[in-house]
Amino acid sequence: MFFDDTAMAPRDIWFEWLNHGRFGRDERLRARVEAETARLAGRLLDHVPLPAGGALVDVGCGAGLVGLTALALQPDLKVTFCDVSGPLLAQARARAPGGRFLEVPATALAGVADASQDVAAARAVLAYVADKGRAFDEMLRVLRPGGWMTLAEPVWRDEALAVPAMAAVAISRGDALARARHKWKQAQFSGEAMAALTGYSERDLLMLARAAGFGEVHVRLEIDVEASPAMSWAAFCALMPHPLAPSLKEIALSAEERAALEAALRPHVEAGTNWRTRRVAYVWAQKPA
């Protein structure tokens, strides 16, 4: 089911993206997306021990996926769910009524005591945090000596670096398709609003973990090139690659540019032959004992 956000004020971009934007309001696609993110949450937890009777803080929990996955693996865990979105915390509370819920940002985990957690986990959270160093400091603070942090973060830097190259192509070719592709990429991955999202790599995450004081640190970058699932053109135009991005239908294109883009992409979108590249950095690190 979709969650009704029509009465929410002010607009909550995190709630809207998680419940609508990431699958273009297409119920069939939603099932595929949720199965995929559940798999990623499981892989995030593969890297760290989940002690019976221990404590885990789910930083930027959204609707509670990581914490719920941890509870399925270790039912005796005490899980604290933290997020900046009240509506998403309400969803998490409905799914995990035995948890503890705090409306706090990753950079200030107020209410989570020093050295109280065995695991601090975050999935696609630090990508949207400007002061990533402060978020690492907070996770170190709340961990017990010997505790583990585990992250899975999208790496969008290559998307941002592609924007000026696509601009050069659009200028040199001058055709509507090249202009449309550039405007589309620019709207989703360029500009000051996207700086936190696109201004880091997996190496930066490694250095931030070490600078915060973590001892043992592991980083794994996974790059997958794969065909997107077949979907309707309407759903594709409503998709948002991340919560800060406009959908294709919201981007200002001329009628000529929009028609050229649709002619080039629609057959592949509907056939499931539209290729995508996904880059995810997994980071797990231990607080010195």
- The class by helix and strand makeup works out as alpha/beta
- Share in β-strands: 15-25%
Sheet of most strands = 7 strands, mixed
Helix content: 40-55%
The strand order across the widest sheet is 3-2-1-4-5-7-6
Low-pLDDT runs: 1-9
In N-to-C order, the SSE pattern is: HHEHEHEEHEHHHHEHHE
How many beta-strand elements? 7
Overall form: globular
Radius of gyration in whole Å, from Cα?
20 Å
Please describe what this structure looks like.
The chain has 289 residues and is of the alpha/beta class. The protein has 11 helices and 7 strands. It has a 7-stranded mixed beta sheet with strand order 3-2-1-4-5-7-6, sandwiched between helices. Strand 1, helix 3 (65-73) and strand 2 form a beta-alpha-beta unit. Helix 5 (132-142) crosses helix 9, helix 6 (157-173) runs antiparallel to helix 7 and helix 7 (176-189) crosses helix 11 (255-271). The longest helix has 19 residues, at 27-45. The chain is globular. It starts with 12 loop residues before the first helix and ends with a strand. Residues 1-9 have low confidence and may be disordered.
Strand and helix layout:
Blueprint: H1 13-19, H2 27-45, E1 55-59, H3 65-73, E2 78-82, H4 86-95, E3 100-102, E4 117-123, H5 132-142, E5 143-154, H6 157-173, H7 176-189, H8 195-198, H9 202-212, E6 217-227, H10 233-238, H11 255-271, E7 275-286
Parallel strand pairs: 1-2, 1-4, 2-3, 4-5
Antiparallel strand pairs: 5-7, 6-7
Features:
289 residues, alpha/beta, seven-stranded mixed β-sheet, 11 helices, 43% helix, disordered N terminus
